[in-house]
Amino acid sequence: MVPRDCSSRQLRCLDIALCLSELPPVGGRSGPSVPPVATTGGWRERWSLDVGDEPDPRFSYANERTFLAWCRTALALMTAGLAITQLLPPFDVPGGRRIIGLPLIATGIVLAAGGLVQWLRTERAMRLGQPLPRSLLVPAAAAVVAVTATVALVLVVADSL
Amino acid sequence: MSTAGDPGSAAGRTALAWERSGLSLAATGAVVARGVPGSGVANRPVVGTAVAVLGLSVWVVTALSERRRRRATHRPVATPGDLALLSGASVVVGLVLFVLAAWPG
Questions:
Q1: A67 and B14: CB-CB below 8 Å?
Q2: What is the ipTM metric for this complex?
Q3: Which of A66, A100, A102, A105 to mutate to test the interface with B (most CBs of B within 10 A)?
Q4: Domain range for residue B89?
Q5: What is the pTM assigned to this prediction?
């Protein structure tokens, strides 16, 4: 088992190295002896989808649906945040509704943009045959919702005292 | 691997997901546009209508784009532009909602 692990790890590294070496250097095609210039064109190369091979369309569709789900989650958080600040009767604590609502709206904004970035990273990884990138969106969304719910609970309890 | 006949209904489920997402954005705009009596939202009909129109526009554009992609035979999945439109519109709506929530009335 150990040698196979080693070989697969080497293979993966080799794949990445090959993929990196196949990135076209700035200014058109050059020989492989010319290293790609990292300072210029790096952004375009790092986010381009013209790399690797097209994955199974079903995987692309699944990735797309994940992005859409993040968008809907973001919109739900935004709407909830607005409803909290506008609809709830005020708490005893001044500004209590905004303390709960504004972080939710801000999180929605981050998730709407982050979902797009995550979609792009995943699509690139699938095209290059690399392991899927880890997403910070999941722990971030969970943390914000948990903290906001805790604050809301404190406010409600403080009101009832 | 054959992709004929939409295995796993991947394309169909994705189309429905686009539909839900576009409608969510339009509905968010409608909430702001219609406002809530007695709240600060009702005092911003122009902003609310703008958000609703933005949401409906994105919904229509993504629905048309989705229909076009369904007819395409090669690479029928979404382009980054399709996703960026929905993502960008959601961010804009979020910023508007943040301003409305932070400074109501």
A1: no
A2: 0.80
A3: A105
A4: 9-102
A5: 0.75
